[in-house]
C-alpha cells in the first residue's frame, strides 16, 4: 500500500492569501495550514478582515511541505507516525466513533 504523502501543491497552504482555499478556525481566525490552526501566534488574518499584509505573515506562513516534505523523513519518523495513527484509530474504534 502506498504511504500517504503531500499532494503538491497543497491547495490550502501552497498559495498565499487564500487563492484556492483557507484554514478557518471556528472563531473566524485564518491560518495557513491545519498544523498551525488554533495557535494564535500563527494566525494570518480573520474571515471578516481577510489576510494580514504579506510582510506580517511571511514568518508565519507554514505549509504541508514544512511538516511532511522534508528530506530528513526517516523510516523511524514514518514508523512513529504509523504508531500514532494506529493508536488514534484504535481509540476511535474503542469509543464507537469509527465504523467499518
Keywords:
alpha+beta; four-stranded antiparallel sheet; 3 helices
Structural topology:
Layout: E1 23-24, E2 29-31, E3 45-46, E4 50-51, H1 54-57, H2 64-68, H3 75-94
Antiparallel strand pairs: 1-2, 2-3, 3-4
In brief:
With 100 residues, this protein is of the alpha+beta class.
How would you describe the overall organization of this protein?
The chain has a four-stranded antiparallel sheet with strand order 1-2-3-4, with no helix packed on it. It contains three helices and four strands, in the order E-E-E-E-H-H-H. The chain has helices spanning 54-57, 64-68, 75-94, and strands spanning 23-24, 29-31, 45-46, 50-51. It is of the alpha+beta class and 100 residues long. The longest helix is centred in the C-terminal third of the chain and has 20 residues, at 75-94. A hairpin with a 3-residue loop joins strand 3 (45-46) and strand 4.
Strand % is 5-15%
Unreliable spans are none
Strand order of the largest sheet: 1-2-3-4
| Count of the domains | 2
Number of DSSP helical runs: 3
Amino acid at each position: 500500500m502506498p504511504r500517504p504523502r503531500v499532494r503538491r501543491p497543497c491547495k490550502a497552504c501552497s498559495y498565499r492569501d487564500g487563492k484556492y482555499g483557507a484554514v478557518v478556525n471556528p472563531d473566524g481566525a485564518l491560518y495557513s495550514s491545519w498544523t498551525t490552526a488554533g495557535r494564535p501566534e500563527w494566525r494570518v488574518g480573520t474571515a471578516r478582515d481577510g489576510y494580514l499584509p504579506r510582510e506580517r505573515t511571511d514568518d508565519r506562513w507554514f505549509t504541508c511541505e514544512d511538516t511532511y516534505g522534508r528530506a530528513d523523513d526517516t523510516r523511524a519518523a514514518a514508523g512513529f507516525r504509523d504508531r500514532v495513527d494506529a493508536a488514534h484509530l484504535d481509540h476511535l474504534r474503542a469509543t464507537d466513533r469509527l465504523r467499518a
